[in-house]
Amino acid sequence: MPTSSPSPSSSDSSADFASALPHQVLLSLLNRPAYRRLWMQHVQRRRGSGINQRAVASFMAYELSDLLGQQIDPDTLKDRVARALKGTALSDATLHLFASAFGFTALEKHTLQQALSTQNLARKISQLAPSRATQALDPRSYTSLATAMEARIDPFGFIKDFTVTEIIRSDVDSLELIQPRVETIPQALTLLEGGQLVEVREGPSHTLHYPGNKVYQLAIQTPYPLGYGQIHQVSYRVKVDIDPLLRERDDEHYTSLGPFSPARFNTSMILTFDRPPQNMRQKFWNQKMHEERLIEDIPLPSQARYSATFPMIEDTVFAFSWEADSAGAIRHYHGQDPSWLSLLDSSSPSPRSQS
Question: Fewer CB within 10 A of the end CB, N or C, for the chain?
Answer without folding.
Answer: N
